[in-house]
Amino acid sequence: MTRQSLRAALRTATEYLADSGVPSPAADAELLAAHVLNTTRTRLGLTPFLSEEQSVQFSAFVARRAKREPLQYITGIASMGEIDVAVGPGVFIPRPETELLLGWVLSYMQAHGLHTPRVVDLCSGSGALAFAIAHARPDAEVHAVERNPAALKWLEHNHVRRVRAGDPAVAIHAADVTEPQLLQDLSGTVDVIVANPPYVPLAAPVTAEVAEFEPADAVFSGVDGLGVIRPMVSVIARLLRQSGAAAIEHDDSNGAEVCGLLAASGSFTDVTQHADLAEKPRYVTAVRA
Ligand SMILES: C[S@@+](CC[C@H](N)C(=O)[O-])C[C@H]1O[C@@H](n2cnc3c(N)ncnc32)[C@H](O)[C@@H]1O
User: Fold this and answer.
1) What is the residue with the minimal CA distance to atom 14 of ligand 1?
2) pLDDT per residue over 174-186, tens digit each?
């Protein structure tokens, strides 16, 4: 076999992925080709041919994607803010909507003139949020909390990558965020808490990518999607200093419920609902009373 035309390879791959039910077949084919060619999607036009070896690799990647393996597990990379993190089987893939949480926490720290803030990322997974915060705010003392042993391996791996890239170290805690004694030493001293916990209600329909590949305990959280958020509220209240703030991402069906949990605890003021780019309720912020 000799070199293959990239356009022809992309056409075949797009049809195959579309037939397999992949939601964005053309974009995914291009992103996989860019990965094989070690370039970006927008620069694909500069490389009209795939070598024999690249062609074989591209076909293998497309076959995996056709089985609905998430694109990011194949490329091994996902992004958050200005950084990327390594991902693969065993860890949740950071989602674009969580960029909103990142944007909020960075703006909050800026607007309140926080210097050397103490920040806790609950349910850290790959560490995308924690590392993006540490990158944007090298003066921050960032703590990342994760329970799942497989996810913790990715968190440690990404920590090594980020520190090698020049970012400050983050404190990693292997712990359960619903544990009432969590991070006891930090009680009443934390400036900001971010949390993207598992929040999908058990019976909610999810894509094949999520159902068959991502860890269930990173996605689902009890019948109502509040299994982790409910007990986490009192932990957040204990950790925050007076006037410290928290942001919690949640299922779009649970905006009012999460606001209600924070308000009912009696520990927070300024409980505020925020929508995502699709105008759906996506995260709630609150200030420690
Ligand atoms: C939706 S993922 C979010 C990961 C990451 N923060 C992000 O935005 O990409 C939720 C993470 O919480 C972890 N997790 C679930 N229950 C937990 C608990 N009780 N204590 C600590 N971590 C938990 C899961 O293992 C998973 O990594």
Assistant:
1) 123
2) 999 999 999 999 9
> Which residue puts its alpha carbon closest to atom 18 of ligand 1?
176
74 in a structural domain: no
Residue 227 domain boundaries: 80-288
* Count: domains in the chain: 2
* Alpha carbon of 268 to ligand 1 centroid (Å): 23
Q: Distance from the CA of 260 to the center of ligand 1, in angstroms?
A: 22
Which atom number of ligand 1 is nearest to the Cα of residue 78?
Answer: 9
pLDDT tens-digit series, residues 150-205? 999 999 999 999 999 999 999 999 999 999 999 999 999 999 999 999 999 999 99
Tens digits of residue pLDDT in 34-63: 999 999 999 998 988 999 999 999 999 999
CATH of the domain at 276: 3.40.50.150
Q: 105, 133, 104, 122: which is closest to 236 by C-alpha?
A: 122
Residue 193 CA, chain-centre distance (Å), reads 15
Which atom in ligand 1 lies closest to the alpha carbon of residue 151? 27
Candidate of 92, 99, 248 to mutate for ligand 1, largest count of ligand atoms within 8 Å of Cβ: 92
Does residue 73 lie in a domain region?
no
Q: CA-CA distance, 255 to 264, in Å (whole number)?
A: 14
Q: What is the rounded CA–CA span in Å between residue 163 and residue 172? A: 13
User: Most distant CA pair in the chain: distance in Å?
Assistant: 70
Q: Does one domain contain both 40 and 93?
A: no
Say yes or no: 235 and 94 in one domain. Answer: yes
